[in-house]
Amino acid sequence: MINIGIYGYGNLGKGVEAAIEKNADTNLVAVFTRRDPKTVTIRNKSAVVDHVDNIPSYKGKIDVMILCGGSATDLPWQTPEVAKNFNVIDSFDTHANALKHFNDVDAVCKAQGNVGIVSVGWDPGMFSLNRLYAECVLPDGSDYTFWGKGVSQGHSDAIRRIEGVQDARQYTCPVDKALEAVRSGSNPTLTTRDKHTRLCYVVAKPGADLKKIEQEIKTMPNYFSDYDTTVNFITEEELQRDHAGLPHGGFVIRTGQTGFNNENKHVIEYSLKLDSNPEFTGSVLVAYARAAKRLQAEGVKGCKTVFDIAPSYLSPLSNDELLKHVL
Amino acid sequence: MINIGIYGYGNLGKGVEAAIEKNADTNLVAVFTRRDPKTVTIRNKSAVVDHVDNIPSYKGKIDVMILCGGSATDLPWQTPEVAKNFNVIDSFDTHANALKHFNDVDAVCKAQGNVGIVSVGWDPGMFSLNRLYAECVLPDGSDYTFWGKGVSQGHSDAIRRIEGVQDARQYTCPVDKALEAVRSGSNPTLTTRDKHTRLCYVVAKPGADLKKIEQEIKTMPNYFSDYDTTVNFITEEELQRDHAGLPHGGFVIRTGQTGFNNENKHVIEYSLKLDSNPEFTGSVLVAYARAAKRLQAEGVKGCKTVFDIAPSYLSPLSNDELLKHVL
C-alpha cells in the first residue's frame, strides 16, 4: 500500500484525491491545507485534514507527498521544503524554470535520501514523454505541440482583471488547418497565430462598455495580441451552465523521414481529450507516486522527471503480467 | 560512439542500416549474414560484411548486436546465442511467447554480464509503451489497438501459397466506424470482424481460376475467415507500381473515467502512419541500442523490455538539455 499525502486542496488536490480512489494500492492518509482545517471538507472517508504546519509530524506515516500548489509562487519553495522529510511529486509547469526547480529539489532529496519527481502531469509530463520518444526514434524530423480545445485558467484570470468584467472563461483552440498541414508531413513553419485561436466567454457587469472590454482583451500583450481572438458576451447563468468544466487536451505530432534518400515519411501522433484537466493531471501524479516509493525502496535518491522513470515503475503489475497482457 | 553489428540483412536489417545513418553517435561495424558474404552488398561505406560464424571474433569491437531475423524460427535461438558475447537488441514479436523468450535471453545475459532488450519495435514496442502508460494513468478504462492501413507480410505469404497465385499483397485496414465508436468513449465490444478488414491485391497465373482463388482466400481459417475480405485481381505491373512499399501503422486508444461519480471521460490516443514498416522498426531498435550500451556501462545485466528502460536512455541529449528543450 502506498500512503499518500496531498498538500493543497484546490482543483488539483481534489483531482489527486479522486485518482487515489481508482488505484487499489494507494491510500490517502491526509490532506494538508493552509486554511483552518475545520473549514475544509474532503470526499475521502478515512483520511484526515490537517494544517500544513503539522506536516513534519507525519514522517513515517506517509510514503509520498503530492504537492498541488501553483508553479508561480507555491511549488518553488514547497517542494524542496517537503522533500526534507518525504518523497515528493509535483506538477511544476513553468518550462523556463524547470531545470532550476529540478536542481533545487535534487539537492534536498540527495541530502535527505528521498526521491522527488517533478514536472509530472500531461504538459509537462505525458506530452514531454511523447516528444522525447518520438525525437529518439525519428531523429530526422520536426515536432509540433498543439493545445486544446481547453480552458486556460491563466487567460481566464487575465480577462477577469479587466474593468467591467464580472466573470470569464477562455478556451485555447488548435487550428485544424495547421494540424492538417503538420500531419501531411509538409513540415510547415507556423507562427503563434497560425497554431491556436482564443475563444472567450465574458460576463460583463451591468452597464459596462462591451466594445471597450472586447478591445482590451484582443490587444492584451502576451495573452491575446498574437492570436486571433473571439469574444462572446454571455450571462452568468450561461457561463455556469455551459462552461463550468475544466476540459483540456492537445496533440503532440512528430513527422520525420528515414532511408538513405529520405524516401520514407512517418507520422507519430499522440493526443489527449480530457473532460477534466485537474482530474487527469491528478491521475498522472498518483501513477508516479507508485514509482517514487519503489525507487526509494531500491535505494535511489534525488530528483527525477518523467524522462528518468522506467514505465514499468508506474504499474501495479509484475513483469510477467506486463509481458503477458500489455506488451 | 555506439558500435553496432547487424545480424541478418533482410528488410529489417536494411532498415537498421538506414537508421544508423540518422544517428550521429552510432557506427555500423559489420553486417552478418548466413549467405556467402561476397554475395551481399550493403549501403554503408565503412562497415564490412561477414559470415555469422565469425560473430564471436568481433567481441570487443561491437557494443550492441541488433538481431534482424524472424520471430518464428530465428530469434528464439539467435538472440540467446549472440547474447553470450554481446549486448543484444531484437524485435521478437510473437506476443504469446514473449515471456519465454525474455527469460531465455535473461539467463544468458545475467550469466555473461550483458544487456538484452527484446521485443523492441512498434508493436510490440511503442504501442506497448502507450498501452502501459495509458493504463497506468487511467486505471478505470479500456484500451483498443487497431493496425493499419498496412501490409501484412504473413497474410501476403499465405495468399501466395494458394494454387494459381503468382504474387500478392495484403493490407490490414482498421474500420473507421469502430475507431469512431472507441474514440467516443462508448466502450464498445468489438469482434475481430468489427475492427479490421482485409484488402488483397492478387496477381493470378495465366489461366488460373479466379473465382476459386477468391473463395480460397476468403475462407482461409485464422488468416481471413473471421474478416470481411476484398480480393482484387491486378497485373504484375500494377502490383510493382502501386504496392511495392511496406507501409504500416495503427492506433492505440484508451478511454477511461475519473471522478468520484465517474463524471469525467478521457481519451488517450497514439497513432503511427509509417511509409516503411522495416525502416521505422529499425529506427526504434537503434534508439534502444543507445540504452543497452549505457545500461551496461552502469553495471546493469540481464534482459529488459521497453517497459524497463527510462526514456532518457534513448536520447543522446543530457539531462539539462532534455529539461530545457524537450520537457
Report on this structure:
Two copies of one chain form a homodimer. With 327 residues, chain A is an alpha/beta fold. Helices cover 34% and strands 27% of the residues of chain A. The first copy, chain A, has a seven-stranded parallel sheet with strand order 3-2-1-4-5-6-14, with helices on both faces. In chain A, strands 8-9-10-11 form a four-stranded mixed sheet. In chain A, helix 1 links the parallel strand 1 and strand 2. In chain A, helix 1 crosses helix 10 and helix 2 packs parallel to helix 3. The radius of gyration of chain A is 22 Å and the shape is globular. The two termini of chain A are 25 Å apart. The model of chain A has no long low-confidence stretch (mean pLDDT 97). At the A-B interface, helix 1, helix 3, helix 4, strand 13 and helix 10 of A face helix 1, helix 3, helix 4, strand 13 and helix 10 of B.
Question: What are the salient characteristics of this protein?
Answer:
homodimer; 327 residues; alpha/beta; 7-stranded parallel β-sheet; 4-stranded mixed β-sheet; 34% helix; globular
Q: State the end-to-end CA separation of chain A.
A: 25 Å
Q: Output the structural class of chain A.
A: alpha/beta
Most extensive interface: pair and counts?
Answer: A-B, 69 and 69 residues
Number of helices of chain A: 11
Percent range for β-strand residues of chain A: 25-35%
Mass-distribution shape of chain A? globular
Write down the Rg of chain A: 22 Å
Biggest sheet architecture of chain A: 7 strands, parallel
Low confidence ranges of chain A = none
- The count of strands of chain A amounts to 14
